[in-house]
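retry 2 of 3: previous attempt timed out while embedding N-(iminomethyl)-L-glutamic acid. Reduced batch size to 1 and resubmitted. Inputs unchanged:
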Amino acid sequence: MQADLLIYNAGQVLTMAGFSHRPKRGPELADTGLIKNAAVAVSQGRIVAVGPESEVKQDVRLEREGLAIDARGGVVLPGWVDPHTHVLYAGSREEEFALKLAGVSYLEILRRGGGINTTVRHCRAASDQELLAQTRARLQTMLHHGTTTAEAKSGYGLSVEEELRHLRLINALAREGPLDLIPTFLGAHAVPPEYRGRQSEYVELVIEEMLPRVAAEKLALFCDVFCEEGVFSVEESRRILTRARELGLKLKIHAEELSETGGARLAAELGAVSADHLLHVSPEGMQALAQSGVMAVLLPGTSFYLREKYAPAREMIEAGVAVALATDANPGSCPCENMQLVVNLACLYLRLTPEEALAAATINAAHAVGRAHLVGSIEKGKQADLVIYEARDYRYLAYHFGVNLARWVIKKGRPVKTPA
Ligand code: NIG
Ligand code: FE
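retry 2 succeeded.
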């Protein structure tokens, strides 16, 4: 067998193999598919062999122009899949961060016309070139920390033309690569200032004008809603998501982030792919997720940054809910692009084991964006999205925090980050 890339001398390869057809649940999350003293061979962007180095070297011949990477005993993982981000935006909100430190709550800032609507103002004032440049820089940060696939939501446009513009830009960045992006329409992220006091008219705009155009132009795979006390109600969310489903979009929902509203049960009722956040999910909500097979996307960086409680992850795992991890990268509740930090926080505060956290950030995260047939594990035939970490043991990734441990990042068989 021919290869154009060979990674050898890997102390540990965590393959996460065997779960391309459905997410890992319960005790399955503990099995990382670990291979010691391993090698991975790649041809034309696809994995062609993975296993103990002696076996791979027997089966595979590296082409003359091929690249051999010495992993120097390090740990190799599938690239992170970040299944919940608001990465396309302009500007930043450090003034509001100072307000928050002084005790003003996230929702109070939103009520005062700030928060999400501050970023909406920044985005509306930004040219395509500005939005693209600022977002590219963040995508580069993600990539350098080992994220090779990410979901990206609109939701800072909040008018027909602006929402469409943001989705077109997300699609343009997806075509540009190297990071793979999955676009999500989040027109119901907040009520924009010009619709203040006319919430129901804004909901109609989302349903009657935005969604049909998003679907007609095929600008998004998913539709999401910020279902929250004082933002969009369960009833409004149900109407928006039902229309989205009729138009062929898959569903996600921001559920039980700052209070318990019943968003998790709505996700189950509508057959959403995921319900995200879930800090305040009820036991009935958890049961509904488990029974319907809706994934729980957990965002511990947001709990950390809002100084809120953490989602009851252990209870969810025990109830049989499939969990994934994401950054929530956004300018308000979690200005962070780093999935390594999310893994640290998941272990410390969601009380996941390192094995569970790594599975939740790779193969299960791939399921949360409908890409598990392509990415999320190191298996023959899958896209060669691979990261070599400066670590002897995979548990070191959960342990050493606040620095970037990724030494090599390989996207579709091509190095996009190399050691300094
Ligand atoms: O997931 N909850 C809504 N959206 C983001 C925050 C967006 C923002 O504050 O700009 C979140 O927390
Ligand atoms: Fe979010």
